Structure formats: C-alpha cells, structure tokens
C-alpha cells in the first residue's frame, strides 16, 4: 500500500467520524443508527499509550488537512441546480469541499439568512450568508488560529444585532462560545462553558426583551447532564442544572424551543440500565422549571427528540424509535392534560438518519426526513394539512446522500427546505428549495 492510499484511508475515516459527530449536534442521534456517530466519552489511558495515541491522532489530522487541500483543488463542484417535477433545488455552497448542517433564519426586516459549517477546511468555519438579489452576501466571522468549528447557531435581537453560539475546539478543549455582530463587526468569541468537560448539543433562543437563553448538555465520563444559562445585559449567568432532581441519571441531546409568551419547552433523552425514554419540561417566564414528564410511553429505544409549539400553545413532540435495522419517526401531543400514545409517521423499513419538523400559521405540521435508498439517501415529506397525515413524497431522489434537512417558514409564508447533499466522501454541498 503506497503513501497516497494510506492518506486516503485516513481521510475517509476522519470524514465519517466528523459527519456522524455533526449529525448528532443537529438531530440529537446517539450514534447507534447507521450513518451517524456517537458522542461518548473516551476512556483515558495512562502514560505512554495515551501520549502515543494522542500523537497519532494529531499526525492523522495533519495528513487529512493536507489531503483535503489537494481534494479541494482537484474536485469538481456539484450541479448548480437539480430539477425534479416542479421542484428546483439550488446549490448554494457550490464548492469542491465539505459543507454540512445548514439552516435558515430571518432578521426583523424579513431578510433571509443561511448558515452552515465547512468541515476540516483550514480557512473556513462557520458560514453565514445573507440572501440578496442575485446571490449571497458573506457575513461569516473569521476563524481564529487553532480553532476547529463544529457547530454554529445564530439569532437576531429586536435591534437586528446578530448573535452567534458556536461549538469550537480550541487548544484541544471543546466549549460553547458566544459572539455578536453589531454594525457589521464581529466581537471576539467569549467562552461560556469553561468549567465543562465536553459541552455539546446547544439550543439557542432570544426572547422579546432581547434576553439570550441557552440549553446544552455536558458529558462527564459515561454520564451527561443538561444545563441552562441566560445572557441579560451582556453577561451570561452561571450554568444551572435543569434536571437536578435526577442526580445519577444520564440525559442526552436536549432540544429547546420558545413559545410566544417566552416560555421554554425542553425535550431530551434519558438513558439508563433500567430506564429509557423521552422527557419533557417547561420553563415559565418566572424562571421555574416544571417536573420531568415521560412522553414516549413504551416506545423501544426512543431518541432524537424535538418539540413544536403551535399558535394555541399546544405542544407537539417528535422522536425516533426502533432497532438497528428499522428506525421510524414517532409523534405525540398533549390532549386534556395527557400525552397520547406515539404514532409512527414514517413506516419506512429503514433507519431514519435525520429529520426536521415545523408548524405553520394554520397550525399544520410539515415533516421532512432522510432515509436510505439504494446506495444513497433521499429526503421525504409529509404534512397533516388535511387533518390526516399525507402520503410520503420523495423529494430528492439523487444518487448522493441527502441529509440533515431543516424546514423553515419565512415571513412570506414560504415553506423552505435546506439540507446537505453528499456526492462523495470529499464533496458535500448545501441545497435549498421551496415546497409551496
């Protein structure tokens, strides 16, 4: 085996790990599904073995970055547009690199923005683009020396200042960082979780009083704990355990959303030797968290939860459940104070990789998910606009891997979809389309 072959194998392994790791941050998957990676604390090794392993990882990463530069130079970008029926899918990144985990946001002037990250790129990290007539305007913060960016989440306040939460490794330690774009200038990233072990899975919200709210989990050994912090008048409060009454339990992959009143609705996964399930808690406007409530009943191996809040304040919760051969998306909601039995929405017979759901102004729910098909993975779409759930529509039907979908309804009520499309191990681009 020659030197180039060895480097290529190393690159492939690192890409697989990076892709799976990033998918966990958006979808909350614990990595037991095919195509995703797990966030688990590594057992430390003492003495020489630990140092040797660390040195080998550093060498491998340097080789991977060197090979990546070659791949970017020699690769050919994916198609600029893909047409399927009435859908036009536009490639918005269009570069011969690896672009992952996109989403939309809007400012107070109804201006649309797109955000994604570039994996393993020595020059790029978080990408923030303003959608303007004829193209995209770059607002991305410059990546600092030694920073490895793994995730970026943005929100706008009432004065249209752009706030960014990023998950970065700096000097081999991973933390959550906060920065702000005010009048076109980015502040220096401020570490929020300096006393944490491996902060991950953040949810970022801003209320009507421009207070910033952050929920995340931290991994310590084989356990995980969920934390909350608030930024009021420029200062982050000390992190507080959300589920402190369950000391000793392990809680993974929280997802939080805020309703019109400013209440935070939180769902997460509990893992234990004798218990498992998806749990729900609410933080009221006075700062009090409700008790934990299990919402998934007897579902087997539930994971990857998210919550939606409709205009009437009704809570809708999604999660995935199944085994190593078949994982589907399940849906439940609260009726007369009780959680109804979760319903299987996908019935795919495959292992669902990632999904996104959104509720529109008429309280109708739209769901998109990624399922394997042939040698790739396609995106599928359903809604409950008629009262019952519609038949699944195959949206992408490409030869690549359509993954990490994100649904967004803009101010003009357009249902937008964005995702990353993996054509190969060294080429992934961001695509968008409009579904209505």
Helix content: 10-25%
Number of strands: 32
Large-scale geometry = globular
| Structural class by SSE content | mainly beta
Mean pLDDT: 80
End-to-end gap:
52 Å
Strand content: over 45%
Number of helices: 2
Radius of gyration: 21 Å
Unreliable runs: 2-59, 72-76
Question: How can the largest sheet be summarized?
Answer: 5 strands, antiparallel
Q: Strand arrangement, largest sheet?
A: 1-2-32-31-30
Can you walk me through this structure?
The chain is mainly β. The protein is 12% helix and 47% strand. It is built from two helices and 32 strands. The model is unreliable at 2-59 and 72-76 (pLDDT under 50).
Which helices and strands appear, and what pairs or packs with what?
Layout: H1 3-27, H2 47-74, E1 81-84, E2 87-91, E3 99-106, E4 112-118, E5 126-132, E6 135-138, E7 147-156, E8 162-170, E9 173-182, E10 185-186, E11 190-191, E12 199-206, E13 212-220, E14 223-232, E15 235-236, E16 240-241, E17 250-258, E18 264-271, E19 276-283, E20 293-294, E21 303-309, E22 315-322, E23 327-335, E24 338-339, E25 343-344, E26 354-359, E27 365-373, E28 376-383, E29 393-394, E30 401-409, E31 415-424, E32 427-434
Antiparallel strand pairs: 1-2, 2-32, 3-4, 4-5, 5-6, 7-8, 8-9, 9-10, 9-11, 12-13, 13-14, 14-15, 14-16, 17-18, 18-19, 19-20, 21-22, 22-23, 23-24, 23-25, 26-27, 27-28, 28-29, 30-31, 31-32
Helix pairs in contact: 1-2
